[in-house]
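@channel sequence for tomorrow's demo:
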Amino acid sequence: MRKYLLIVLFLLLSVFLTRFVLNREYYPPLPISSINKREAVSRLEHSSETIVKIAEEDGYEWYITRMEQGRGYKNVTRMVSKNGWTLKNRDGNGFFFMKKDRTIIVTTQMWTGNYILCKIPNEWRSK
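structure tokens (generated this afternoon):
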């Protein structure tokens, strides 16, 4: 009887751990609701780009990039600069960009030790 109980417990633990790992339950919650954790990471992993758009919510575009020893911040500034914006200042997690007479603030946050989430106002692509 004890042998069967151990087998059942082992199987239940295996199922739980498999579900936990496959669904990326170990990642912290995302600050956006339109995409789940697994999909966000999957989009970046299956892309040839270094930074990938994952959502558009409440007037902002959300991107994900790998941190890779600080390169994640360079990915953010490079992407925004390609649209004609000039980085004027960085204050903590905020990047201040200017284009003509307009200013936008791009905010970043470490999502895990490996990924950065980036929040950019929608008007950053307008001319």
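heads up for whoever presents: The beta strands are 51-57, 60-66, 86-91, 94-99, 102-110, 115-121.
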